């Protein structure tokens, strides 16, 4: 079938709106009509050329919501008409990883996701006979996409697509990193580096977890007001701090953060986030994605003296199990998504969404089809 998609033909170039061809679902796959998709910084990261797994041409996008229109042979868990959120972290419930409660990183289809193809090794997308790569196994910058059955979470039908699409990445990543990965306790002191689409959800998660002090660190002062509305208690602009940022943060938290989160993708900030964590027990969680060739470093003494350094992908959430619950939280008014969606636009204007992100003018832009 013909579908409308934003195609990334080349790194560093704007997306191009095209009519592309999409083959129907094969065994274990589903065809989903995408109704809305968010634009995450990771899409911009891959488009920039900094992603070692970036492949071109590709249909990017991994923060969608839509309706199942057709299922391939053997599909049992969803049917046409079901409302779903695509999962770039699938949940097969059978692999060694899914069976281990310590991780959410289902590996059932990870190798083919990284090669931009479906689990059988081929792509369903093409343009004029030329293959187009899938992206993160989701490719939501198209009005129809094909996904493995294990990579869709069935959600309630009264949830608005143009809001809950954000649960497909940013909301779950930020809130989940607090609740599932770090397991922040009531009364904690939390420091959040980066107050964008992820960091504000970390703040919202920290408030839900009952943190007492939530420090937000960002070089863009325009992020302050919204972050305060979401629960930030103290704002730090590193450009206004005299001297080193780490001792400043240790000082205002009276010894260091119980939990810190890096939500930018900058390896210098990752080090600062680790080093502002409390001696003896502080945990620092890396969420930001750093470019090819980047490495992190610190003095081993920082870890010897009891700080913990770890990372979180998709907030430690198991998509088919946890995403429907997070949709319920939204529908019950327990989490705020609406105020983080600052821009809504049609697919034809998707490049504006990238510009707004780079200019620091948006939190989340959502594309509606
Ligand atoms: P965003 O562009 O919305 O926000 C980034 C924020 O960082 C902005 O507010 C910006 O002002 C701030 N910032 C930039 N440089 C800074 C600096 N030197 N010091 C302090 N603040 C600085 O991006 P986002 O969508 O929130 O994504 C954030 C990061 O998280 C990206 O690297 C993205 O790829 C990554 N991410 C990871 C996961 C995961 O599962 N681990 C999921 C989603 C996104
Ligand atoms: N392809 C990159 C890594 C990108 C990355 O870390 N992706 C996160 C999700 S970001 C969503 O906005 C993730 O889930 N990682 C776990 C995984 O298996 O990809 C690279 O460096 O190669
Ligand atoms: Zn994302």
Strand and helix layout:
Elements: E1 2-7, E2 16-22, E3 29-39, H1 41-48, E4 64-71, E5 83-86, H2 110-114, E6 125-127, E7 130-132, E8 144-148, E9 152-155, H3 161-164, H4 170-182, E10 189-193, H5 199-209, E11 213-217, H6 224-229, E12 234-236, H7 245-252, E13 259-262, H8 267-275, E14 283-286, H9 300-304, E15 308-311, H10 319-331, E16 341-346, H11 350-358, E17 364-368
Parallel strand pairs: 10-11, 10-13, 11-12, 13-14, 14-15, 16-17
Antiparallel strand pairs: 1-2, 2-6, 3-4, 3-8, 3-17, 4-5, 5-9, 6-7
Helix pairs in contact: 4-5
Give a brief outline of the structure.
This protein has eleven helices and 17 strands. By secondary structure, it is an alpha/beta fold.
Order of helices and strands: EEEHEEHEEEEHHEHEHEHEHEHEHEHE
Strand-residue proportion: 15-25%
Do you know the CATH architecture of the largest domain? Alpha-Beta Complex
Which term fits the overall shape? globular
How many helices? The count is 11
Helix % is: 10-25%
